[in-house]
Amino acid sequence: MNHLRRSFLAVASGASALVAAGFVKPRAAEAATWNKQGFEAKAYNDAIKGLGATNMIESKDISITAPDIAENGAVVPVAITSKIPNTRSISIVAEKNPFPLAATFDVANGAEPYASVRLKMGQTSNLRAIVKADGKYYTAAKEVKVTVGGCG
Amino acid sequence: MFMTRGRLAALALALLASPIAAQDGPDGLAVGRQMLAEDNPGELWVARGQRLFFEKRGPKKASLESCDLGLGPGKVEGAFAQLPRYFADTDKVQDLESRLMTCMVTLQGFTTEDILRNRFGTLDNDSDMEALVSFIGSKSNGMKMNVPLRHAKEAEAYKAGEYLFHRRSGPLDFSCATCHADQGRRIRLQELPNMTDSKQVQTVVATGWPAYRGTQATVRTMQHRLYDCNWQMRLPDLGYASDMSIALTSYLNHRGNGGVVQLPGVRR
Amino acid sequence: MAEPMRIRAALQGDVADVRILMRHPMETGQRKDAKGDIVPTHFIQNVVVTHNGRTVLDAQWSQAVSRDPFLGLRVKGAKAGDTIVVTWTDNKGDKRTDEATVAAAS
């Protein structure tokens, strides 16, 4: 899986060189293969397995910015920053969602190890960030309470 | 449940005083509100509204470029900041939504029924009105609300709005003022603005609506806010662009004069 | 056809702060429409962001990403005038590509 992903990125960079050289119009770049096993997993443990992240190291070098209390579970903003050297990807898992794995961001070519996105959360749950760096997996979590809202 | 009433009231005041500035306080809501406000999906409605405004549409295949929103045909800059106002051609006081309806009917040939059917967007159907109001509202950004009260009908609408705001009615015997005339009131976690406070009414009028509603996944306009408040009070449905809705908007918007427009807003 | 994205890219030092809003229903497959019919799953699965033609971010999403998605990223080594191209692809194979120019620090 991960070898596949890497080779897709390599293809993408190769294509970029052509773009930079002016041979190809900069249209859609090659995308990574969607991680079906991870995204279709319904149980938290299976989602982690789908990521290949069964051995995770707790890390204080991952920060998660998200509200303590979400006013609306349909739109929960979350931003992840990793200070772990050679961060290659950041995944976000909403532990109690029907499909816990929500997103994976592969960073390359100067992108900082950072991603900001908004997620649906069915209920109060941990948001877990999983960072892949140098072939190892690091993790941190933050609880977000999901409330029922007020007026319409 | 997670905070004392006093802290919530303080938070409400802080947020109302400065809805866009960072609120990185100890409260649990502010971080999320700040993150949503920084990148407001309502901007997508602004873009669509702009496209709709200039597109030739309707049975008459006309754009809205000659629509007079109060400052002359086609002038959208600053129009929102001066609405509602009196229009001689219709001999009525009109808010932005009602004036757009007039233009869509007279210039583009849409029927009132078509427009009303599409007045509130759903998850399956976008509302042109919500997009147009987002675009035109944003064209007053940075300007101060300056709603006129010169024409006799403008004064009449203001007075009617003031009366309606305070008039208790319906099975719950509620008025707008029941929820919106005291400090620190809320429904669950949502603070309710005190519309008798001049700063708060300025903030609501100039930065409140149109707003992207996260729970509804669309932009709602002031007409929807009033309609929904009315429903919350279990009153009969408030007619879209009805005299009653325009009277309430005339009263509130005029009292919001001086507030600096920044639209669309964003709400949970 | 899908609505255009709104892409903002502004420099903070030599880092481009890129903020993208997309119009997409991001249907989970659990919602019913007004007629009571289930609305089929429909969501963006991949978003690729390039900086001057080089892929800087390759995102994979599930249906848990909110409707009208937002994506924020930061690209080091950027200069004013650089090109950012964003392409999303959803589970029905629909695609949309938009681009923006990195703006100087304000």
Give structural attributes.
heterotrimer; B: 268 residues; mainly alpha; three-stranded mixed sheet; disordered N terminus; C: 106 residues; four-stranded antiparallel sheet; three-stranded antiparallel sheet; 0% helix
Question: What can you tell me about this protein's structure?
Answer:
- The complex is a heterotrimer of chains A (152), B (268) and C (106).
- With 152 residues, chain A is α+β, with helices and mostly antiparallel strands.
- Chain A has helices spanning 2-20, 36-39, 44-51; strands spanning 56-58, 62-65, 69-70, 76-82, 87-94, 101-107, 114-119, 125-133, 136-146.
- Chain B has 268 residues and is mainly alpha-helical.
- Chain B has one domain: Orthogonal Bundle (Cytochrome Bc1 Complex, Chain D, domain 2).
- Chain B contains eleven helices and seven strands.
- Chain B has helices at residues 5-17, 30-38, 42-54, 96-106, 112-117, 128-138, 152-166, 176-180, 198-207, 222-232, 243-255, and strands spanning 85-87, 92-94, 186-187, 190-191, 211-213, 218-220, 265-267.
- Chain B has a three-stranded mixed β-sheet. A two-stranded antiparallel sheet of chain B has the order 1-2. In chain B, strands 3-4 form a two-stranded antiparallel ribbon.
- Chain C has 106 residues and is an all-beta fold.
- Chain C has a single domain (6-30, 37-101), classed as Immunoglobulins (Immunoglobulin-like), CATH 2.60.40.10.
- In chain C, a hairpin with a 2-residue loop joins strand 3 (44-51) and strand 4 (54-61).
- The N and C termini of chain C lie far apart (34 Å).
- Classes of the chains: A alpha+beta (152), B mainly alpha (268), C mainly beta (106).
- The A-C interface holds A 8-9, 12-13, 16-17, 19-20, 26-32, 34-35, 39, 74-77, 79, 94, 97-99, 101-112, 114-121 and C 15, 19, 28, 30, 45-46, 48-67, 69-78, 83, 85, 87, 89, 95, 97, 99.
- Strand 7 (114-119) of chain A pairs antiparallel with strand 5 (70-76) of chain C.
